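Notes to self, Ribonuclease:
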Amino acid sequence: MPATLTRRRWKPLALATSAVLVGLTLPALTATPAGATTTAYDDTYYADAIGKTGPSLKSSLHTIISDQTTISYSAVWTALKVTDQDPNNSNNVKLLYSGISRSKSLNGGATGNWNREHVWAQSHGDFGTSAGPGTDLHHLRPEDVQVNSIRGNKDFDNGGSSFTNSGGSLTDSNSFEPRDAVKGDVARMILYMAVRYEGGDSWPDLEPNDAVTNGSVPYHGRLSVLKQWNDEDPPDAFEENRNQVIYDTYQHNRNPFIDHPEWVESIW
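result:
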């Protein structure tokens, strides 16, 4: 007589495994923050920030990165030709939102030129182009003149429609979504500005929020989306090199969220 087959119900792997391992002692697991990084600057430049979180971390980073050499707005032209040089063509710069490689010599205000895009829109706090937030290379990037105009002073968010030379970026009536390859770059630039400019050095106190209608107030959004972009698009070689060039050659301060993207979640 054939053996009677007993139908077994499927068990979740975790339950089945625990049944097998009854009586065994497993090693303790130590949680590591997602994406945690270490850098050559942790024992020197970031020494006063390591191990801190929340407001304490933000305050320490503000003190660290405020030790900065400022440059003039006219000097930004020359600097961007170095910080944003196309790694595949030393005669060109790489435009932020459109991803186009364009001749360094085509800087200006005409159609077909590239100009100086303030990623933290200068009207969000009305800081203009004076030395300080208006000339800070950590958020100034080359961009096509017309694309720069389309972005305007819109906050950042998901959604919208394509446009000429968009490179995959999108826009709608009240927000702008950069192409996927630089979403994290944009987030880290905005959050750098929020830590660097805290209102104590004659400049407005810049802060992120979750709005897309900020206009002229010193806020920039949308924070929840910027945090998502920081996670989805970690720093790449271009962004890391840019941070290093600004530190070594121009401002002598760093964007801490390029070195430690996990600090975004630690603060916000």
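- Confidence is low (pLDDT under 50) at residues 1-34.
- The beta strands are 85-86, 89-94, 101-103, 114-118, 140-144, 155-156, 170-171, 175-177, 207-208, 219-220.
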